[in-house]
Amino acid sequence: MPDDEPILEARELGRYVPATNKWLLQHVSLEVAAGERIVVVGPSGSGKTLLLRSLAWLDPLDAGTLYWRGRAVTRHVVPRFRSRVVYLHQRPALIAGTVAENLQYPFQFSVHRSRRFDAAQIEHWLRVLRREPDFLQKSSRDLSGGEAQITALLRAMQLTPDVLLLDEPTAALDPASAQGVEQCVSQWFQEAPQQRTIVWVSHDQEQAARMADRQLVMAAGRIVQGA
Amino acid sequence: MTYIDLTYTQVAAAALLILINGAISIALRLGMERTLAWASVRTVLQLWLVGLVLEWVFQVDRWYIVLALLTLMTLIAGITAGQRNRRRFPGIWFNTIVSLWAATWLTTAYVLLVVLQDTTSWYQPQYAIPLVGMVLGNSLNGTSIGLNSFTDTLVSHREQVEMALTLGASRWEAARTPVQHAVRTGMIPIINSMMVVGIVSLPGMMTGQLLSGTAPIAAVKYQIVIMFLIASATALCTVGVVLLSFLRLFNTEHQFLFRRISD
Question: What residues make up the domain containing A101?
Answer without folding.
Answer: 8-225
